[in-house]
Amino acid sequence: MKRTKILRLLKSDSPAGRVLIKGWIRTRRDSKDFSFIELNDGSCLKNMQIVADSALDNYEDVKKLTTGSAAAVSGELIASPGKGQKWEIRAHKIEIISIAPESYPLQKKRHTDEFLRTIAHLRPRTNKYGAAFRIRSELSYAIHKFFRDRDFRYIHSPILTGSDCEGAGEMFSVTTLDIGNPPKKEGNIDYALDFFGREANLTVSGQLSAEMFALALGDVYTFGPTFRAENSNTRRHAAEFWMVEPEMAFCDLTGNMDIAEEFIKYLTVYIMEECKDDLELFAKFVDKKLMRTLENIASSDYVRLPYREAVEILKRTGKKFEYAVDYGKDLQTEHERYLTEHHFKKPVIVFDYPKTIKPFYMRVNDDNETVGAMDLLVPSVGEIIGGSQREERLESLRSRMKETGLPEEDYWWYMDTRRFGTVPHSGFGLGFERLLMLVTGIRNIRDVIPFPRTPNSIEF
Ligand code: 4AD
Ligand code: MG
C-alpha cells in the first residue's frame, strides 16, 4: 500500500477508506482500552490522531512509543467523534520503525529560539520551524510562478566569480593555494598560480550575469545563494543568503519600482492564501500584529520618496537616532524603519540616492549627483529590496568605473554590452530571508535559514 501524506488526507472531503501514513510521534495518551497517538509527518502543521485498540497484536509495544519515535500506521480514515480534528485513523496495524530515547531534546514544553539554534538539525521537527520552512518552500515556488506567468526566464548565475558586483569588498575568497605557504611574486601572493589563474571569490550578487542575459532574452531573473563577508552581527544579516534578482530590458526606474511593488504584493497574498495554517501559528505565537501587517503590505499603495526628501523628513522628526542622518550618508535600519513604521505606516520606496554611496553600475541622473537607485522598505525589516536603473551609456559607465576605482580590463565583457545594442534596463535584488522574516514575523534571520551561516557560526 502506498503512503499518503497527512496534508492530503486533511484536504479530502470524504473518508478515503484504508490508508497508510508514516511519521513521528508527537504525543501518546493511554486510556483503558485505547491508546491515542498524535502522529506528524511534516507535510503540514496538523497531526493525525491515531486510535490504537488494545486488541492490536503489538499493543504492549505500541504503548512504548515515545515522543520522537517513528511509526507506520495503516488503518481506516474515519470522521473523528472527538473535538479538534476532522478525521482520525482507527489503526489496523502499527509498525514501530524506531523508538526515540527519553533524551530526545524536543519534549512537549516550548523551547527558546536560542536553544533551538543549538540543535538546528532537529528544530524543523517543531511546529514553529516546520511551518517556517514549509513557507520558505512555498515562497520559492511562488517566486518562480510570478516570473514565469510574466514570461521571465530563469538564469543560473555563477557562484564562483572574479568580480565584485557591489564594490563593497565584502567577499569570501576562494583559493586552492596553500594559505600557510602561498607562492609569492614581488612580495605579494601570486594568484597567477591559483586555480583560476587570478583571484576568485564567492558571488555577492548575480546581477552582472543577469544584465548580460536581459540584454539577450529580454526579461530574466536569478534566484540563488549569495555570500557576504560583512562582519555585522545583526539580526538581519547572514553571510550566506538567497537573493532573487530580476533584470528587465527596456525598463526604466519607474517600471522597476512598479514590478518590485507588484512582486511583494503578489508574494504576500500568495502566502496568505496558500499557507493559512502555518501563517496562523505565527500570527498567534510570534507576532500578534502579523495579519494586519500583511494586509497592509498587500493592499496599500507604496510611497515613492526621493532620498533627499527622506533625509529631510528624518531630520525634522526630532527623534534621537543612534546614527545621525545627513545628506550623503546611507540610511540605517533605524531610519528605514522609522519611515515605514511610524511616518508613513506602509511600505516606502526611496529613490535617487547620491552616487557617492552607491555602486558603479547605477545610472547617473541629469543632476550628475544622484543615481537611479531604489530601495523598498517594509515595517520591522527595513530594506527588503535594493535595485536601480543601470548605466547603459558607455561613456558614463566608464567615468563611474574610474571614480569607483574599477579596472576596465576586468569588466571588458560588461562594457561590451554597452557597445553592442545597449538599451535602458533595470533590476533589483530581493533578500529572500528578509521576505521570510516579513511574512512570518520571525525577528532573527538565523531562524528562517535551515542552517544559518553568520560570523563564528558554521556548525551543521
Ligand atoms: O541592496 P543589495 O546589496 O543589492 C544588490 O546586491 C544588487 N546587485 C541587486 C540588484 O540590483 N540585482 O542587496 C539586495 C538585497 C537587500 O535589499 C537585502 O534584502 C538583501 O539583498 N541582503 C541581505 N540579506 C541577508 N543578509 C545580508 N548580508 C544581506 N545583504 C543584502
Ligand atoms: Mg542595498
List the SSEs and their pairings.
Elements: H1 6-11, E1 17-30, E2 34-40, E3 48-53, H2 59-62, E4 70-79, E5 87-98, H3 113-118, H4 127-149, E6 153-154, E7 160-161, E8 173-174, E9 184-185, E10 188-189, E11 200-202, H5 207-217, E12 219-227, E13 240-249, H6 253-274, H7 276-285, H8 290-299, E14 303-306, H9 307-316, H10 333-343, E15 348-354, E16 370-378, E17 382-389, H11 394-404, H12 412-419, E18 425-431, H13 432-440
Structure notes:
Helix content is 31%, strand content 25%. The longest helix is centred in the first third of the chain and has 23 residues, at 127-149. Strand 4 (70-79) and strand 5 form a beta hairpin. The protein is of the alpha+beta class and 460 residues long. The model has no long low-confidence stretch (mean pLDDT 96). It has 13 helices and 18 strands. Strands 6-12-13-18-17-16-15-14 form an eight-stranded mixed sheet. Strands 1-2-3-5-4 form a five-stranded mixed β-barrel. The chain is elongated. It has three domains: 6-98, Nucleic acid-binding proteins (OB fold (Dihydrolipoamide Acetyltransferase, E2P)), CATH 2.40.50.140; 123-153 and 232-447, 2-Layer Sandwich (BirA Bifunctional Protein, domain 2), CATH 3.30.930.10; 175-202, no CATH class. Magnesium ion binds next to strand 17.
Quick summary:
The protein is of the alpha+beta class and 460 residues long. It contains 13 helices and 18 strands. Helix 4 crosses helix 6 and helix 6 packs across helix 8.
